[in-house]
Specification:
By secondary structure, the chain is mainly beta. It is 10% helix and 32% strand. The chain starts with 13 loop residues before the first helix and ends in a 13-residue tail after the last strand.
Length: 142
């Protein structure tokens, strides 16, 4: 007789686990196509802010655009193609040339007016400050 063991997840809070998994999956699940490659990045949270570090090696500062619309942070970069010399034979192209793009949904507790960005050694760092959540308004019944 053969025994097959199976594992059942033992989570105390299955809904919380599911929400967390959904958040992580949506944050990193953008499809990569030749038209728009996603850039690798790290997302972290500190007491007073969020930090995003995106790899943008070889992309010039003027070819990087960071914008926000409806609490969605869009990071775009364009890597220009380098021209090869006429007397040069290329045997292999591995470095991607084209457009990079990343879209991240920001929490409502971010202060988008005070975001700081810097580019250093091929890494774009965004510091996104947190703000106090707006208290809900209580409505009196007349």
């Amino acid at each position: 007789m053969t025994y097959i063991t199976t594992r059942t997840p033992k989570t105390l809070f299955p809904l919380m686990s599911s929400l967390f998994d959904d958040f992580l999956n949506s944050a990193f699940s953008e499809e990569q196509t030749d038209a728009n490659k996603t850039m690798p990045m790290d997302l972290s949270e500190r007491d007073k802010d969020y930090v995003i570090r995106a790899n943008v090696p070889g992309i010039k500062k003027e070819n990087i655009k960071v914008s926000i619309h409806n609490n969605e942070l869009l990071i775009e970069g364009k890597q220009d193609e380098t021209k090869t010399e006429k007397n040069e034979t290329v045997y292999r192209y591995e470095r991607y040339k084209g457009n990079y793009r990343r879209l991240i949904n920001l929490p409502d507790t971010t202060d988008v007016e005070k975001i700081e960005a810097k580019l250093e050694d091929g890494v774009l760092t965004l510091i996104i400050p947190k703000k106090e959540p707006t208290p809900s308004k209580e409505i009196t019944i007349g």
